[in-house]
């Protein structure tokens, strides 16, 4: 499989501008490409698709890449089939997945990525690249047709993964607790991506990028920490 995928935890880290912390990896992903199709469906109505796309366009034009919003196309399916590269931004994962189903974009996106079309996601856009959206942090503000996602990779993601704060008096569930709850009913691995971290999938190889470790959860096992140079290809072999 000729996958070329970049799954980013967040679009903005503390002290950086939009996508700046991932600039090097984005340029590597899109090498040789001049056009990008942006899917803004994750944004609730408080931010229009037009305004969201304008923000993305401003960022990519600095890198010599033109951006078209899928909502600007008369035929969204045709737009995906003709795209040089695809970017799905962050927002609400439930809303995003519902819109992908409603616009019949699940299969076209799967087919394009299998053919090697670069795919980039941030936050919700990374969530929908996984097997399901069952490990998103978002509120279910709408109900999608299914929780099954694009399944570009055979595991789930938890972007914006947070560790418990030392000395915190918060008594609610931690992210780790919620992922363990997920694993009482689901078997696929879950990757907790901390802010500033990202996964690059190239064919049958997966690499953790960024300066932080990622926390990997396997059903029935203790969570494991992996550094950027560690071998994590077993994630692509999950059933």
Structural notes for this entry:
- There is one protein chain.
- The chain has 239 residues and is an alpha/beta fold.
- The protein has one domain (4-153, 195-209, 229-237): Rossmann fold, CATH 3.40.50.880.
- Helices cover 24% and strands 19% of the residues.
- It has 7 helices and 11 strands.
- The chain has a 7-stranded mixed sheet with strand order 3-2-4-5-1-8-9. Strands 6-7-10-11 form a 4-stranded mixed sheet.
- The longest helix is centred in the N-terminal third of the chain and has 13 residues, at 49-61.
- The chain is globular and about 50 Å long.
Stretches where pLDDT is under 50 for at least 5 consecutive residues are none
Which term fits the overall shape? globular
The succession of helices and strands, N to C, reads: EHEHEHEHHEHEHEEEEE
What is the residue-mean pLDDT, rounded to a whole number? 95
How many individual helices?
7
* Share of β-strand residues: 15-25%
**DSSP, total strands:** 11
Termini separation comes to 16 Å
CATH class descriptor name: Alpha Beta
GO molecular function, one term: dipeptidase activity
Enzyme class: hydrolase
Protein name: Dipeptidase PepE
EC number: 3.4.13.21
Précis, in short:
The protein is an alpha/beta fold and 239 residues long. The chain has helices spanning 23-29, 49-61, 76-82, 93-102, 106-114, 124-127, 175-182; strands at 4-8, 35-39, 66-69, 86-88, 119-122, 156-159, 190-193, 198-202, 205-209, 214-217, 224-226. The chain has a 7-stranded mixed beta sheet with strand order 3-2-4-5-1-8-9. It has a 4-stranded mixed beta sheet with strand order 6-7-10-11.
